[in-house]
Each structure stands twice: as C-alpha cells, then as structure tokens.
C-alpha cells in the first residue's frame, strides 16, 4: 500500500545539515526520491551515499539560494534525474539575531536574500513545472518567530519569517486548486541555525535559548505528515516547538 510519499520526487534546499539533512534522510527511508541542494557539496555527497547504501534514491547539487539561476538549475536537474518534481521544500535559512540599533545592515541584507528571496526563487523555479503537470506541493520553512517577534534582537529575522508566512498564504490562494502549500513553523530545533548570530551578546542569548531544542527529525516527521496526505488535503500550517518553550 502506498504511503503517499513513496516514489515522489522531493527537492530540498539547505540540505547539507540540520532540518534539510534530516528531512532528506527521513523521506528517503519512506521511499521518496530526494534531490538535495546546498552550498556544501561534500556534506551532501555523504548524505547521498548513505541514502543509496540503504536502498534509497538521491542526488545533490551545489546551490546558493540567493542566485535564482541556481534554483532553476536545481529543479531542472531533479527532472533530468527522476523525470518530474512533486515537492519543493524551501528550507535554507539564516538567523542573525542582533538589536536593530546595532545596524548590522549586511546581516539584514543576507537574511532577506536567503530567507525571503531564496523562497521566492524556489517558488519561481518549481511553479511552472507544477502548473504544467497539474500538481505539486510547496513546503516553506518559516518559524515560530514568524508568528511572534523573537525578542530581544530578532526583529529583522522575524520580519523575514513573517514574510514567508505571507508569501505562502498568498500562494495558496492563487494556485491552490491543484498545487498544495504548507508552511512549517518550528521553534527551537537543533541545527546550525543557532550559530548565525555575529553579535556576541545576542549569540549568548540564542545559545541559552537553544538548550531546550528538539531534534531536527521532529520537523522531518511534520513535513512527511504534510506530504503523505491525499491530494485533496492541503495541510496549510504546522507549528511545533519543544514542550518547554513558552515563546
């Protein structure tokens, strides 16, 4: 009996570690064909070897989500490798926490480029393919910080994650007849995301906050739940956080 995931071609950005890696490994175990995209090719090569050694199907390509052409190439490579694309997971992200008064404008630009434009470029790459085949599923990774502003120091990061929620909701309204859209909003999850703050006092706050983090596999299971639903069921939002997290 099909589990709703077996045989689906799933493209994942930010797939060299953390949520992306955990999702790739989990979905491959469930029978998905996974295509990994990230900047660190050597990390992805290890993941692909592991998946293939366990009987799964996977490929990986060097991708910088701030470059639209890289996302377009990733989707084209997925189709070349496996014939189609069924799910696009826009996961790559950066969390650089610091008070606005610190004026870390370069970090603001980087978060906007990765967290917002990277999602839009992923949508732009996959949407024409989904429309042509009459089906598809976007899964965009936002955050609990996209529901409530992370404080102190998270105003800009939260702004990017609020944007992901808004873009996802608008996309669902525009193309939701046959194309599904899911927003995943995790709380503290063990990944490299917590290492993105260059402002040391803020980095110390984040380090303390992430002591309660749950494993990245928790998010992978939530993503699998959204994918495995029948085609007429669209899981719009999933919020998950550690039981100890009060934010």
Looking at this protein, list some descriptive labels.
247 residues, 46% helix, single chain, NAD(P)-bd_dom_sf, EC 1.-.-.-, Rossmann fold, alpha/beta, 7 helices, 16% strand, oxidoreductase activity, acting on the CH-OH group of donors, NAD or NADP as acceptor, seven-stranded parallel β-sheet
If you had to describe this structure to a student in words, what would you say it looks like?
With 247 residues, the protein is of the alpha/beta class. The protein has a single domain, classed as NAD(P)-binding Rossmann-like Domain (Rossmann fold, 3-Layer(aba) Sandwich), CATH 3.40.50. Helix content is 46%, strand content 16%. The chain has 7 helices and 7 strands. The chain has helices at residues 18-29, 41-53, 68-82, 105-133, 155-175, 200-209, 216-228; strands at 9-13, 33-38, 57-62, 87-90, 136-141, 179-186, 237-240. The chain has a 7-stranded parallel beta sheet with strand order 3-2-1-4-5-6-7, with helices on both faces. Strand 4 (87-90), helix 4 and strand 5 (136-141) form a beta-alpha-beta unit. The termini are far apart. GO terms for molecular function: oxidoreductase activity, acting on the CH-OH group of donors, NAD or NADP as acceptor. Its EC number is 1.-.-.-.
């Amino acid at each position: 009996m099909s589990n709703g995931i077996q045989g689906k071609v799933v493209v994942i950005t930010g797939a060299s570690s953390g949520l992306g890696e955990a999702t790739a490994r989990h979905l491959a175990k469930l029978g998905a064909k996974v295509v990994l995209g990230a900047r660190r090719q050597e990390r992805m090569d290890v993941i692909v070897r592991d998946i293939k050694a366990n009987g799964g199907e996977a490929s990986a390509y060097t991708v910088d989500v701030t470059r639209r052409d890289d996302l377009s190439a990733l989707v084209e490579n997925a189709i070349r490798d496996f014939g189609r694309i069924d799910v696009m997971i826009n996961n790559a992200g950066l969390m650089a926490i610091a008070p606005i008064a610190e004026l870390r404008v370069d970090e603001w630009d980087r978060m906007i480029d990765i967290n917002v434009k990277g999602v839009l470029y992923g949508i732009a790459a996959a949407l024409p393919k989904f429309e042509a085949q009459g089906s598809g599923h976007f899964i965009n990774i936002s955050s609990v910080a996209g529901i409530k502003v992370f404080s102190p120091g998270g105003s800009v990061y939260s702004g990017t994650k609020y944007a992901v929620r808004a873009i996802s909701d608008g996309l669902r309204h525009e193309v939701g007849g046959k194309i599904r859209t899911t927003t995943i909003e995790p709380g503290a999850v063990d990944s490299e995301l917590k290492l993105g703050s260059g402002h040391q006092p803020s980095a110390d706050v984040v380090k303390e906050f992430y002591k309660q983090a749950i494993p990245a596999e928790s998010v992978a299971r939530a993503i699998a739940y959204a994918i495995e639903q029948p085609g007429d069921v669209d899981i719009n939002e999933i919020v998950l956080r550690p039981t100890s997290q009060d934010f």
